[in-house]
Write a structure and sequence with these properties.
alpha/beta; seven-stranded mixed β-sheet; Rossmann fold; 2 domains; binds NADP nicotinamide-adenine-dinucleotide phosphate; 10 helices; 352 residues
């Protein structure tokens, strides 16, 4: 690497903790020298950043399943990058790798991510790097474990998915269809997303929660009740679903994005007693508890993608300077499928 390039590692750092809705001004761009590569380390040139609603939670100074991002720290994010210098026996220059590298041009790694100490993963030969962040990445895995291991979807189930046109929801609904659900309905914001679910992903119906009465549509679409609800949203959508569950049905709580930017958490769910009346099983989960099974899940997801049974979609924005703006797209409902930002082309020929 030239001396000039060494001097410039652009980074987006957390400047202030967001109050309510996260703002672009909560982050600041700085530049520092690219770090030297020590023995047992390698340097990654980041190519794609992945965006997840959970990143909003990491900005709050509260105890969670991972520590918060500190003020002044590089914003934490999963990325795909290329190894451009290596003094590590297992990583070669030119290889594409995925890990929690953060919003910066270059990341120094010892082969494990700095927070959870999970191994940096190599992008398999022939797989587009963006796909390893989407249907084969954390959101694809979340859909897989949530729908199969937690929801235990089975043939004949009538299934509802909220946040259905997002990265997790779109894969979760398709898995239910692949497993023989009698009906798969998605809830999403806007006609374009609803049309995509039905026309291209094979959902049986979609509800535009911004325009339609969700409770009335659920009653019409599930006359015998919902057997399995995969919830990414919480709030009013969870309340409406609780009123339409079948007896002994299952609710998988994957996320609750409706409240991620609220300054004060709203009371709820209002229809809590439906859990008792309908004898529901409600179960939350976090992907990190399932990572020992990730290879099995990735193989299955890759096989479904290869056969065409499963469709992945990435929503790719461009330009390092757009990182905070791209993050906000998740909360404005602007993304369809997995939200990514492309920040560079691979500087070296790709080897695998
Ligand atoms: N449990 C786990 O381990 C785990 C792992 C990954 C993700 N998750 C959760 O899964 C959910 C989806 O994550 P993702 O990465 O796949 O993101 P995503 O669904 O691709 O993007 C977020 C989507 O949420 C919807 N949304 C935003 N604000 C909303 C609001 N106030 N009310 C209703 N919908 C809103 C928007 O779609 P619309 O246009 O349809 O509103 C937006 O496109 C999140 O709740 C996330 O926290 C959980």
């Amino acid at each position: 690497m030239t001396e000039q390039a060494r001097e410039s590692n652009r980074q987006w750092r957390l400047k202030s903790r967001p109050v309510g809705m996260v703002k672009e001004s909560d982050f600041e761009q700085v530049s520092e020298t690219v770090p030297d590569v020590g023995e047992g380390q390698f340097l990654v040139r980041n190519l794609f950043f992945a965006f997840e609603p959970a990143m909003r939670g990491w900005l709050n100074d509260v105890k969670s399943y991972v520590p918060p991002v500190g003020l002044g720290e590089v914003m934490r994010a999963t990325c795909v990058g290329q190894v451009v210098e290596s003094r590590h026996p297992d990583f070669r220059e030119g290889e594409l790798v995925s890990g929690v590298f953060g919003w910066q041009d270059y990341t120094l790694s010892d082969g494990q991510d700095a927070i959870l100490r999970r191994p940096v993963v190599k992008v398999p030969a022939g797989v587009p790097p963006e796909r390893t962040l989407g249907a084969l990445g954390s959101t694809g895995l979340t859909a897989y474990f949530g729908m199969l291991d937690i929801g235990e979807v089975k043939a004949g189930d009538a299934v509802l998915v909220s946040g259905a046109a997002g990265a997790t929801g779109s894969v979760a609904g398709q898995i239910a269809r692949i497993k023989g659900a009698s009906k798969v309905v998605g809830i999403a914001g806007g006609p374009q997303k609803c049309a995509w679910l039905v026309d291209e992903l094979g959902f049986d119906a979609a509800i535009d929660y911004r325009k339609e009465n969700v409770n009335a549509r659920l009653k019409e679409l599930f006359p015998k009740g919902i057997d399995l609800f995969f919830d990414n949203v919480g709030g009013n959508i969870l309340d409406d679903a609780l009123l339409n569950m079948a007896q002994f049905a299952r609710v998988v709580i994957c996320g609750g994005i409706a409240a991620y930017n609220e300054m004060e958490l709203p009371p709820g769910p209002r229809n809590y007693m439906q859990i008792v009346i309908r004898r529901l099983t409600v179960r939350g989960f976090i992907l990190i508890d399932h990572m020992q099974e990730a290879d099995r899940a990735r193989q299955q997801l890759a096989a479904w993608l290869a056969s065409g049974e499963l469709r992945g979609r990435e929503d790719i924005q461009e330009g390092f300077e757009n990182a905070p703006r791209t993050f906000l797209r998740l909360f404005r409902g602007e993304n369809i499928g997995k939200q990514l930002l492309k920040v560079a082309e691979p500087p070296l020929p790709v080897v695998s």
